[in-house]
Write a structure and sequence with these properties.
Shape: globular
Strand order of the largest sheet: 1-2-3
Largest sheet: 3 strands, antiparallel
Number of helices: 12
Order of helices and strands: HHHHHHHHEEEHHHH
Strand content: under 5%
Oligomer: single chain
Number of domains: 2
Radius of gyration: 21 Å
Length: about 290
C-alpha cells in the first residue's frame, strides 16, 4: 500500500473519476470483497463437497453474523453521498482489490484490515464512510484477531472447550480430544469450532448493531455485549456436546443443516440481546 509515501507523491484533491459512487460505498464493496476472499477456501470446500441446497442452507460455511456485517457495511456505504474521491483513495482501493485476489492465505485479510484502517483515518467521525470503517474493522475480529488469539493460546482454549463438553456428556477427555457417547470415536475440537471464534462473532454483531443504528456505546450497551459473548460461548459448547452425543450425525451437525440451525440460533439469540441493548441505548440517548 502507498500510505508511507509523501503526501505530495499522490495528489489528494478531488478525483474526477467515479464521482457517481460515494467513498463509503466503494470502500464497503472493497472490504466485503476482501472479507469474502479471506474465506474463499472454506466456501470452495463447501461447494465442492456439499450439494447446492446444503451449501445455501449452510450459508456456504460462513457464519450468519459475518453475512449480516457485510450487508450492514454495504447498506451504510450506499448512504454516503456520491463523489468526494481522491487519487489516494483510488490507489488504496486498487491495492485492496489486488490483495483480495492474491493466492496467499493472509493477503485478503491484510486487504480488509488495511481498508478499514485507511477509511477510519481519512473519514470524519459520524459520516457513513467512517461508520463503514468500523464495521470493516469489526470483521477482522473473527477473521484475524480471533484466529491470532487462538493460535497463541490454542492449547488452554481448546482444552477448556473439551473439558466442558466432557463434563456435559460424562465422557473421558484428553487435551482437546473428547470420546463421545458409548464407544464412539474421539472427537477432536479444532480452532474453527472453538468458543473463541463464536465469541468473536458476538463482538462483531455487537459492533455492527451499534454502528448500523448509530448509537453511542454506554455501560449498559457494554453489558449487553458481555451477555452476547456469554450466550455464544454457551451455545457453542452445546453444539459441541450435541456432536459428541450423536457422532453418527457429525456431517449434519458440523457442516450441514444442523450447523446452519446452530448458526441461525446464534444470530437470533445474540441478535435479540443486541436488539434489546440498542433499543435501550436509543431510549437513553434521546
Amino acid at each position: 500500500m502507498t500510505l508511507a509515501r509523501p503526501v505530495g507523491a499522490i495528489p489528494t484533491g478531488p478525483f474526477p473519476l467515479n464521482q457517481s459512487i460515494g467513498r463509503g460505498a466503494a470502500f464497503a464493496a472493497a472490504g466485503v470483497l476482501a472479507a469474502l476472499n479471506a474465506q474463499a477456501d472454506q466456501i470452495i470446500n463447501v461447494l465442492r463437497y456439499s450439494s447446492l441446497a446444503s451449501a445455501v442452507t449452510g450459508l456456504a460455511g460462513i457464519s450468519a453474523m459475518i453475512w449480516v456485517a457485510m450487508y450492514a457495511a454495504l447498506k451504510i456505504g450506499l448512504a454516503d453521498p456520491p463523489g468526494g474521491w481522491t487519487r489516494r483513495d483510488a490507489v488504496v482501493l486498487s491495492a485492496v482489490v489486488i490483495l483480495s485476489f492474491l493466492p496467499i492465505s493472509f493477503a485478503a485479510n491484510a486487504g480488509l484490515l488495511g481498508c478499514g484502517i485507511y477509511l477510519f483515518a481519512t473519514s470524519r467521525q459520524g459520516e457513513p464512510a467512517w461508520r463503514v470503517s468500523l464495521v470493516l474493522l469489526a470483521l477482522t475480529s473473527p477473521l484475524i484477531w480471533g484466529r491470532v488469539l487462538l493460535h497463541i493460546f490454542a492449547v488452554p482454549i481448546l482444552a477448556l472447550d473439551a473439558q466442558l463438553v466432557a463434563a456435559i456428556t460424562a465422557s473421558p477427555v484428553d487435551g482437546n480430544l473428547v470420546r463421545g457417547a458409548s464407544d464412539a470415536p474421539r472427537m477432536l475440537i479444532g480452532g474453527p469450532c472453538s468458543s473463541v471464534h463464536n465469541m468473536s462473532l458476538a463482538i462483531l454483531l455487537w459492533t455492527t448493531a451499534a454502528v448500523l443504528l448509530n448509537i453511542r456505546i454506554d455501560r449498559r450497551y457494554v453489558a449487553a455485549g458481555l451477555a452476547m459473548v456469554v450466550f455464544m460461548f454457551v451455545l457453542n459448547v452445546a453444539r459441541l456436546a450435541t456432536i459428541a452425543v450423536f457422532p453418527d450425525q457429525y456431517e449434519l451437525l458440523h457442516v450441514g443443516a444442523g450447523a446452519a440451525a446452530f448458526s441461525w440460533a446464534g444470530l437470533i439469540g445474540a441478535g435479540f440481546i443486541a436488539f434489546r441493548g440498542v433499543i435501550g441505548a436509543a431510549e437513553r440517548q434521546r
